[in-house]
Amino acid sequence: MDYQKxxxxxxxxxxxxxxxxxxxxxxxALAQVNxxxxxxxLRLMDGRGFELGDSAVRFSIQSISKVFALSxxxxxxxxxxxxxxGKEPSGSSFNSLFQLELEKGIPRNxxxxxxxxxxxxxxxxxxxxxxxxxxxxxxxxxxxxxxxxNRNVAESELSTAYLNAAIVNLLKYHRNIDNDIRDVxxxxxxxxxxxxxxxxxxxxxxCYARSNEPFSHGNVRLTKSQVKxxxxxxxxxxxxxxxxxxxxxxxxxxxxGVGGGIAAIYPSRYSxxxxxxxxxxxxxSIMGMKALELFTxxxxxxxx
Length: 304
Ligand code: GLN
Hints:
alpha+beta
C-alpha cells in the first residue's frame, strides 16, 4: 500500500474544509494559534513512518493528555481506580457539571474533565513529583526529551478555569478528591498544556497499538490487559459526546483534544495522529475527523 500517496489524496480531499469551524478560544492562549494548519503522521508496526503538512509543528495536546494520565493512574492503583469513576460513555460535553451532580460525584469515565481531575488527584496522592513524573513519561513514550508543558497556555487556562473549578469543587464535596482543589486543578491544567507534534503523538501512541506486548515505558508498567482496556475506553469515550459518531465514521480507538489534535490506533497495525485547530460544535477537529474517516475508508484498515 502506498501510504504516502494515500495521505496526499486525503490532504487534497480535506482542503475544501479549510476555514470551516473555529479554534477553541475559551482558553485565551489557544485563540492566538493560526487556525489554518493541518498535519498528519502515521506509524506502522514495522517502524515505517509517513507524514504530511504541519506534522512537525507542536500544538496543545489538551484532552489527549487524559490517555497518559489514565495510564499513570492505572499503573498506580490498578482496579481500585474504578471505585472512583465509571467507564461508560457520557453522551454529554467533556466539561458537563449536571451529570456529575446527578451521579453524586462519580465521573462517568476518565476522559471527561471530572474523571481526569480525579486522575490528577490520584497522581498527587501517590507521586512525590507528579508534574515531573508525567512529563518524563510522555517524553519516554514519544522518545523525545524536548517535549514540555507550555506554562503560558496553562496559566492562561487557569485564569479562566471557572467551570473546571466548579467541577473539582463538586468532586471534593462528594469526597472524591483527597488533595487541595487548587493543586488538583493546577496539575490537570498543566497536563493539558503539554505540546507535541503529530509526529511525536504518533510515536507515543504506537506504544498503545502494541497491545500484544507488556507496556513498560519509564516508570509506568501496564499489563497487556490494562492496555487493552485503556484502548477500549478510547473507543467508547475518546470523543466526548461524539464518541459514537467517531466510531461510526472512523472505526478506531482514539482521543481528541480542543487544541485540534486527534491520536488514534489500530492495535497491532498502526498509530495515526492528525491536527488542525478548527473545531466542530462538539470540540473535535473538523479536518482531523474527516482525514481519519478518509484514511480508514481508503485503506480499509479500521478495526471493524
Ligand atoms: N483543558 C481543557 C479543558 O479542561 C481540555 C478540554 C479538551 O481538550 N476537551 O477544558
